[in-house]
Fold each of these.
Amino acid sequence: MLIKEKVNQAVGILQEFDVDCWITFARESQINGDPTLAFLVSSDITWHSAFIITKDGRAHAIVGRYDVASVEETGAYDEVVGFVEGIRVPFQDYLKEINPPKIALNYSEGSEICDGLTHGMYLTMLRLLTEIGMTDRVISAERCVSAIRERKSPTELKSIREAIRHSEEIFDLVSGFIKPGVTEREIAEFMQVEVNRRELEFAWDAAQCPAVFTGPDTAEAHYGPSAKTVEKGHVLNMDFGVKVDGYCSDMQRTFYILDDGETQAPPDVQKGFDTIVKAVHDAFAAIRPGKQGHEIDRIAREVVTAAGYDEFPHGLGHQVGRFSHDGTALLGPPWEKYARKPFQALEENMVFTIEPRLTVQGRGICTIEEMVVVARDGAEFLSHPQREIILI
Amino acid sequence: MLIKEKVNQAVGILQEFDVDCWITFARESQINGDPTLAFLVSSDITWHSAFIITKDGRAHAIVGRYDVASVEETGAYDEVVGFVEGIRVPFQDYLKEINPPKIALNYSEGSEICDGLTHGMYLTMLRLLTEIGMTDRVISAERCVSAIRERKSPTELKSIREAIRHSEEIFDLVSGFIKPGVTEREIAEFMQVEVNRRELEFAWDAAQCPAVFTGPDTAEAHYGPSAKTVEKGHVLNMDFGVKVDGYCSDMQRTFYILDDGETQAPPDVQKGFDTIVKAVHDAFAAIRPGKQGHEIDRIAREVVTAAGYDEFPHGLGHQVGRFSHDGTALLGPPWEKYARKPFQALEENMVFTIEPRLTVQGRGICTIEEMVVVARDGAEFLSHPQREIILI
């Protein structure tokens, strides 16, 4: 269902960008899977496989003979050709038949999600095209692949909303479990048991999902929960997401462990938390189609630095989809590693996180990660934004 | 543990092949993971990351700041450098320091397992190297990466043996479940419940693991089990594997469903099955270090055709490791899609399947898939080879 939906969407996008022909070329997808394959087939492919979609609406697949049945079953292709010895003849025959002026391939320096073609497969493709005189027609499919991933269909948005609902429920449940004396690892295990009970998948590697950080001097983000114990006076933060029907949630929440005699967070913690909330909402209010991500990032970054904190050493927010980090356009600063991503225009139905962060010295990390969808005239929260620090 | 073991092994292999420096260059490994990363890190990496191993025994990693802690934890690197804005400066500084005459990168037309570098990342690497005058030092790391994957350590062989043991036990269990009237899907579900009960992973996509085919006119290999019902007189075959500590088994077994009054398989089925057994054992007997895979493939292929059957439309056997299809050297015919794989010399401690196949008209498919390890003077079975058709 999703595959027919996305293949149809792809034809419209090829027309919009005036790209004659788009080829996804892959082999042994268990080993080196082009991330675009998830929109083109519903199972692994084994040998050299070409999924060829044209601006005039044709969808043609050439795959090893044993993969024909499962590709046909998607119902998305006009024709599925199987081969035994090699792809060369059926591939060159079909390209000569359709004779496309431009041929878009899945490579990109600036966007990993559009960069599924391996260099060895690129060399093979170039050899196949050179033999039929089409070498100079090759272009990057980055714009097309980005649009296919980024413009979420109603089916895709529904799955993301459902993944967020589960995450929020699990954050609520764990709030009753956190207390002084439990370890980061015990908190993570509590949540993982709940994920398994709900028969959900983790949005990223389970060893770091959730990531849990309690108190000052924690490991940096992207690290598994440790044996460190929750103590009174700690700020505790978590990064957590699940997958529903292949689509992710990705959210962070901040907790404060009340010290003896406290009924609310002390002023230093409250100031840090309130700064993060303001950064989230000021950035949110500026999102609309046509804006560029670096403009949104700067708003949140300036809220944090204006309050006297160091700026966060990462982008404000990334897109979410089949991966927790998905899409090309990014709410990020113009740093080398982000290439042109912060300069791509925002579009309706892109799904972003907003996740500023700051350190409260001697306490821990305040960070919130919300999820939003770009709408016609602004943005909508997909998550229920955290406005109060969760008191334990 | 495995990572230190494999990084050390890599240094020896670089010395053996006289390769000065080997760089694995990847980003967002959840999205486009170079399959070699499993030997270099124990968790996902996020931004541009370079794992640089040299012939003189240095192991240096440059990764995004948030990934530093988990890479350091492997204990395999002399130094792990973290960056915030981009990899360019620390990468170029280190390359200038070690100044390697040859730089091997993970790309290969002929071997997908050595082809983890995407084309976009290749372009980025080339740009980084051009800026420091090292463009012309680039070579393919195919030989090194193949050797690292293919020469199984004792730890790796132990995991594979354990995965085989589980597979064989589950084949035994399902033999008591198969009977006329059950569907392919019910048989698969029975086995999957057992895999989950044992807390194992599937060796490939669970939708096709096991693959179950009963009777004549089944879907071809690489297709999920259907609602087709087992009937008396059917030949039934299955393809199944599990993972233990990241290492796979991959095995096939053939069953015959006795018809009324039968106490053994009828002559046409018995002849087909015995032909497969002979093909397996004749091929097995010919395996030794230094032989080439096409020589082994031809022996089994000729047993099948000499008995009057069509030749199987696939290679006789592939290597097994972290993926069910692993390694470069292949027991296969010299077909286009296999490139130079059938001409690579076999080496000690490579693990192969042997899996000939033939159709018994009107009955079904006879196929056995055994697993063997290449030894100093021959080969050893890792699986207990099937010598009798399993009668139901």
Note: Chain B has a mean pLDDT of 95.
Amino acid sequence: MRRLGHISNVDSLVDSAPAHIRREVKAVLQALDKAIAAVQPAKLLHDKITVRGEVFRVGGRRLNLDKFDEVVLLGAGKAALGMAKAILELLGRRIKRGVIVVPYGSNVKMLDCVEVLEAGHPIPDTNGVKAAQHIIELAESCKENTLAVFLLSGGASALIPLPADGVSLEDKIEITNLLMKSGANIHELNTVRKHISAIKGGQLAKALSRSRVVSLILSDVVGDDIATIGSGPTAPDVTTYTDALQILERRGIIDKTPSSILTRLRRGASGEIPETPKPSDNIFKHVTNIVIGGNFDACRAAASFMRRSGYRSMIVSSHLEGEAREVGRAFSSVALSVERYGVPLKRPCAFVIGGETTVSVRGDGVGGRNQELVLAAVEKLADTRKAVLASLGTDGIDGPTDAAGAICSSNTLRQALEAGLNADDYLRHNDSYNFFKKVGGLILTGRTGTNVGDVAILCVGD
Amino acid sequence: MRRLGHISNVDSLVDSAPAHIRREVKAVLQALDKAIAAVQPAKLLHDKITVRGEVFRVGGRRLNLDKFDEVVLLGAGKAALGMAKAILELLGRRIKRGVIVVPYGSNVKMLDCVEVLEAGHPIPDTNGVKAAQHIIELAESCKENTLAVFLLSGGASALIPLPADGVSLEDKIEITNLLMKSGANIHELNTVRKHISAIKGGQLAKALSRSRVVSLILSDVVGDDIATIGSGPTAPDVTTYTDALQILERRGIIDKTPSSILTRLRRGASGEIPETPKPSDNIFKHVTNIVIGGNFDACRAAASFMRRSGYRSMIVSSHLEGEAREVGRAFSSVALSVERYGVPLKRPCAFVIGGETTVSVRGDGVGGRNQELVLAAVEKLADTRKAVLASLGTDGIDGPTDAAGAICSSNTLRQALEAGLNADDYLRHNDSYNFFKKVGGLILTGRTGTNVGDVAILCVGD
């Protein structure tokens, strides 16, 4: 068998699959591997950036490196290390200093002359605050003739938290929890957070206002909105202090909001403290935000591999959000229409979806959104003859587990019953990890060094 | 404008749509109308059945009417009236007697020599019990040389409830409520109900065991399983009393189960009372169950109309189930991928889904599953340029409202904001009906005389 790059247990997953769907299991796992490979930061940056002599080209922009005294590298996110390595290869010794912030566990202190700091994720911590201060200080030290390259990827919101004056990290964490419990969506969450932060919502761009800024952004956000990815440190913010207050009001949590936050938002709304930088702000004339890759790149690689493997293939959506179990059920229903009516495609065929689902935790089990999506499909796929569904997080980490995701097939329900397991019970307890640990089907990758959300593939064999 | 058959407010919906998406709104509404027209019982029966001289052909079967002394017509369901009319046209005076059961409000007492009874739906009542007794008596009066034609459509489970000996209608209603609240799925619900009924789960076929039986079935069930539609009065039952007891146990409601039901199930499990007829039972040699139409027919008509109207078209699934709001969000996300990446289809294009979603009611608003599905899409469609989404129940009745469903577009969120309405709040209160009543978008049909579940169309203009 072809050696795969990221998924470490392909052989055992293929071997343990029932013979009649082994081909589909293998194709799906290989396609997911291709999806991860396609969004490796190094690959994306080398694809999008060329440096010839002193000319740096990226995203249709052309910068003459001669014009700058120095290049400073800043960055934060789950993919910062891989992105920094690729940029160092491209720009080499032109980079004189820099700092990037990554989750704990990288075991790297320096990359050439770039400091590598570690901080808490997904819960922000004081090391993150220190790292963010370090980034702002470095940014403010940049001059007119500095080219600042900022590497942004998912996870940055938590990795470089910088509470605004008078607000504590604890208050920020508390309001985030209150908002999430109240059902606030990502836009509401970010509107509030940007107005109690000293780095989010374009404020890093403000700190860099004397310099030329190029932000290279790997998107983990559905829709790739640059104001949302990592809370948009170098992107204009269209929201206001008044918006933030209205959200707290509408979500019914204004009475529970920490007073430091309420004071700041009210002072901001009355004009006592400056707004976050708006789209019309002059500072953005010197800023170029470029999304170098996102979920669609991963989906495209997966669909393209399935097509080369002989399956009619289609990306159904790379903008999926919603409750994982519901997405799993809806997606798996497509296999029934394929087998029964030959729609939307005739067999053999494959469907790719991408995005990022969520799990409303009700039970006390262990799992992740991808594993839960797949577990929710088990019952419906039992009514198919020859279907396989797999889903994984491209960062290799699905919930608080050591799995990236899971795979199931037409046979999984039967296998579970034979093992005395009730799939429905595991789903009710949000215990997808233990279900697949017992039945088989966990996909293992370890950290992949990238992060563009989730990819799922449904394959129906002939 | 072309006159439409079923949707009564097309003109006003088209006129009130923003000019740039008027074409899409019109096409989608016309396509939904075609979907309803394609599954009218008369049309389906005339398509599937031919009577030439004394030869009756249906679904590949050939019956010689000469061989029978009489044809008896039985039936129940929301589409029973339309089905009966069509059969009377086809078989005419050969039908000597019969009875069909329909929901209140038909205002018809007799169709030729066929009695029309009315009963409660969706809550069963004593008129339903009497009607079911009447059907069983008529069935038992059929002889060797009788051809019994049974017309089955959605709603029959409630319209002809016949509690088994010793079980009261109240007990049946109570256990149904207990099961539904415990999260039981349709299969679990039916397993229990078939074992406390004297008509469900093949027991009508048993009452007709001396005769030749042809069941003509209009499916409102996702997947068209004949044992599930109307609880399968003429279909073999693979479930047992023991299964039923295990379900009550597993759902944790065995202690609350009415004692009459518990007694019956335990006696059944110990062999004291006979099982429901199983697939191997001889009675089914004389029974032909034919699904004359279902959700896919409606989806196909809708997709085909959209194609003729110039939109690349695709049925994504006619097997959709799940929480309405989640399906709405997932489905609308496809429009974003179309506009941004040209996948799964390039503009202009349309996607059709069918099935039947559910709503977990949390708020105290008014709505239906189709209206809620559409409301949940409003926010996502606001990020599109030119998309329209509509969903309706093919029976014309969406929840406890006078609407069949609703339609929204890229502009609906803006219209709502201008009217001071927060779409999210209405969704949280399950108040989709009042949202669309205020913003516009309710689709009105009245009862359509058919019932094959729901159809939704997403259209992205050029």
Note: Chain A has a mean pLDDT of 95.
